[in-house]
Design goal:
Elements lengths: L3 E4 L2 E4 L4 E7 L7 E8 L6 E6 L6 E3 L7 E6 L4 E6 L8 E9 L16 E2 L3 E6 L1
């Protein structure tokens, strides 16, 4: 299993930006599809964005399309989530997730069950 550590969360005003980072341990980062999920108080964990192993394919939740960008640097074992035009409804704990996929193809899953490794989460708070 890969170990994941998120960073970059914080408090920002509406309309502002934050960049989350997720550093992964291990030497096989390129075999993992990476995703970001979030969970607000009283709500279920929801998919935010995902990126395929080589970064060819990305998927986004409709609520963040055009505002958030996921990217990865396999040489640094790191995945990023650039969040622009933040809204108060983006307030949540953001989790990094990894899914080991050693078969060919650049698929990206959107279900939490598809991912086997999770970080501890980082809080993002957007004030109005």
């Amino acid at each position: 299993q890969v170990q994941l550590v998120e960073s970059g969360g914080g408090l920002v005003q509406a309309g502002g930006s934050l960049r989350l980072s997720c550093a992964a341990s291990g030497r096989t980062f390129g075999n993992y599809v990476m995703g970001w999920f979030r969970q607000a108080p009283g709500k279920e964990r929801e998919f935010v964005a995902g990126i395929s192993r080589l970064g060819v394919n990305t998927r986004y939740a409709d609520s963040v399309k055009g505002r958030f960008t996921i990217s990865r640097d396999n040489a640094k074992n790191t995945v990023y989530l650039q969040m622009n035009s933040l809204k108060p409804e983006d307030t949540a704990v953001y989790y990094c997730a990894a899914a080991l996929r050693t078969t060919a193809g650049e698929v990206v899953g959107v279900s939490a069950d598809w991912y086997g490794s999770w970080g501890q989460g980082t809080q993002v708070t957007v004030s109005s």
